[in-house]
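Moderator note: this is an archived Q&A kept for reference. The question asked for a predicted structure of one protein chain; the sequence and the answer are reproduced below.
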Amino acid sequence: MTKADFYIGNGITANWIGSIFRDGYPNGIPLKILICANPTLFEEDVVEFIHQVEGVVKTDGDHWPWLWPDSRMTDYSYMFLMDHSKVFASNFGGNFFDPIQYIQQGEIISAGLGHPVFPLEEARAWTESCPNYTEIMDSTQITGISRKR
């Protein structure tokens, strides 16, 4: 079961669109999503795709579906990067790569953009859904997660 998360943007302000529960590898994602050059169309295409497969969509009122706090433990993440007007992917939070190049060549080749930074809202949702944990935060970042005693 190869899972995938979809975002617009990168960093703590990235917008999580939704997630799919299977077939999240690049060959399982519609080409129109992977080649999209417009963030609005990307989001529309992702939502349409998720509605056709098993997954969750934020705008449908769905919440972060995983037991882990962010996409670093999700098989693949797809992010539309505004400054490149292009979709890039990450495998378990590793360096960004071009998913089209992956499909063509069969291997992950770093795009030279470093690794993604995932938004904090997923970490907040995860800790809120786990009553044995609380998060210790300042106004800009999570500084730690502690177990309640």
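Archived answer notes: Residues 39-52 form the longest helix (14 residues).
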